[in-house]
Amino acid sequence: MSYLDDLNQKHDDTHLKTLSLYAKENSVPIITDEGRRFLSQMIRLNQVKRVLEIGTAIGYSAIAMAKNDPSIQIVTIERDPSMQKKAKASFKEAGLNHQITLIEADALEYDENALKGPFDLLFIDAAKAQSEGFFEKYAPLVKKGGLVITDNLLFHGLLEADAPRSGNRNTRQLIKKIDHFNHWVLNRPGYDTQIYSIGDGMSLSIKRID
Ligand SMILES: C[S@@+](CC[C@H](N)C(=O)[O-])C[C@H]1O[C@@H](n2cnc3c(N)ncnc32)[C@H](O)[C@@H]1O
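Above are the sequence and the S-adenosylmethionine SMILES. Below is the predicted complex in structure-token form.
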């Protein structure tokens, strides 16, 4: 572990540490520590109050975001029943049921008009081959000046260097799709986007349009 990881982790929330351990033991992919801190800083700097998250898993990132401020409201969508079950238990245990609403659905099939926008932040962290679909469908619910953040754009470092030639066919196809998304999101009209090598690679898009 690096000096900075070690230093930052000493100040991490205990409840989040426990959930992170659960994720590790059960091979649940969750946001990296660095990514989580970046999200939290963005939330505070931009006075984000309403968040829409695609991809809840066990509720780790939703809890981390909610903990920034008791007035933050999070709506988070998850399609996997076992994840939904664990997320519900996590929200209850964290005493955050009043701040977090879990939608048990496939985000690509869910009627986005049923959600009450606008949101200050859209956090996309679900099926990595479908980030473009999530962006197209849910970014219209983000307010002008709001943020869209997408995670895992380096896909565990595989997007860098010679990695596209590595791995099996499925991995190579996924890498191609993520690479396509990275170019697509950087050129998306109406948004000012940068991709950062924070955590597993995160894009930050600031919405310029209504
Ligand atoms: C990387 S994990 C989310 C991690 C979580 N955001 C965190 O950092 O704690 C991705 C999750 O997205 C869910 N997912 C994938 N595609 C989805 C979809 N179309 N609709 C809803 N959930 C989806 C998966 O079941 C998985 O639990």
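The domain at 3-207 is CATH 3.40.50.150 (Rossmann fold).
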